[in-house]
Amino acid sequence: MKRITLLLLFVMSSLSAQTWNFSVGANTTNFVYTDSQGVNPTYLKPSSGFNMTLGYEKSMSRRFQYDLGLAYSQYNAVGDVQNIPFSYQTDFMGLSGGIGPKLEFRNDFTLMLKARGAVQKMINGNQFLQNHYEDLAEDEQFKGLRYFVGFSLELEKKVNSNLYVYTQYQHLDTIQFGTSSLNFVPSTVSFGIKIQSK
């Protein structure tokens, strides 16, 4: 992860014209578990978590652009089985990117719709059950890389020639690889700023 971070920062710093974006928000995550019989139990309920991104954005043309950055997300869930409550608390970090069109409106508003992809890895996680915390680091359902695809819808407002503010809705879903039968389906609402430098 450290090598990926250094490589990403080097590539971004080598570009002449840069637009940096920083956002914070909240995830609401569905844990979709499929058991050995192909059934999706309903005892897992969505829970909220923190989301933060730092990235770089570039226009490919007047109507099309892409972004790439680092993302930190908390994917959490709660539930109960036979009146025994439990919860999952996980922290993920990785790379996220998007590409898509933008529509410019009056009063310096811009609407952007992007197809998105991400790859993330859990850096910390535990399950709380019967007053006991269980480390999820070696749990087959959580360890390893997780791949996400989805979309985002973003509304941006230009403040001045170098500063923008925006709000974004993002919906992702994991792509299943390997033996894990647990999917994460996070929906995120975030607010952020963009700074353009030359």
TrEMBL record:
Source organism superkingdom: Bacteria
Residues in the signal sequence: 1-17
Protein name in UniProt: Outer membrane protein beta-barrel domain-containing protein
Alphabetical UniProt keywords: Signal
